[in-house]
Amino acid sequence: MARPIVVFDLDGTLVDTAPDLLDSLNHTLDAGGVARTDLAGFRQFVGHGGRVMIERAYQAQRRDFAAGEHDRLFALFLEHYGANVPGQSKPYPGVVEALDRLRDADYLLAVCTNKTEELSKRLLVGLGLSGYFAAICGQDTFAFRKPDPRHLTETILLAGANPKHAIMVGDSRTDIDTAKAAGIPVVAVDFGYTDRHVREFEPSKIISHFDELTVPLTMQLMAAQGH
Fold first, then answer.
1. How many domains does the chain have?
2. Is 9 a catalytic residue?
3. Domain check: are 75 and 98 in the same one?
4. What is the pTM of this model?
5. Could you report the per-residue pLDDT of 81-116, keeping only the tens digit for each?
6. 144 with 190, same domain?
7. At 122, phi and psi to the nearest 5?
8. Which residues contact 152 (CB under 8 A, 6 or more apart)?
9. Which phi-psi region, left, alpha or beta, contains residue 94 (left: φ > 0; alpha: ψ -120 to 50)?
């Protein structure tokens, strides 16, 4: 039988990166002469990567970009964020134990995130987590990204696994929609970055702590999906 795989989103799922993302977003907004945002605002903007986060922050203040301004601000965001990785970011409680549990059961593990691939890898290296993952795929790894289901399925294939033996774990509608479109069961954490509760998006299962991400649960979800 093919080795099963669990694919994780990164920000708001595996790692609490909110303090650093918010710092970099506000640094960028300062440079654009736009009012800073707070954690509540940040939760509305996050999920599709830094470029979209800046765009949503501008839209919330009914501000438009001058020609070339969006590119300049995104470059500033990446520079500031990259200079501070891993910063204050840290894995959520129970993450390391869950990764160990799955790896010991011979699962493959991967990351599928709308963060850039380089910054994702730098963050995971900085936190000592990169060695767990057979693939770490960001918004720029392929020519498409979440919620395009190919971002997830190609991550699974790159890790050496089969999408028919896979589970997705995420924190947002983007993750849930991606997994559903790929025909893959999805576990949603309820402590991540979303301004609406994940139950509204009808994931396969909701967990409140990584202690709940067990081998029997993943097997049950794959069996229920006919995998």
1. 2
2. yes
3. no
4. 0.90
5. 999 999 999 999 999 999 999 999 999 999 999 999
6. yes
7. -65, -40
8. 7, 112, 146, 163, 168, 178, 179, 182, 184
9. left
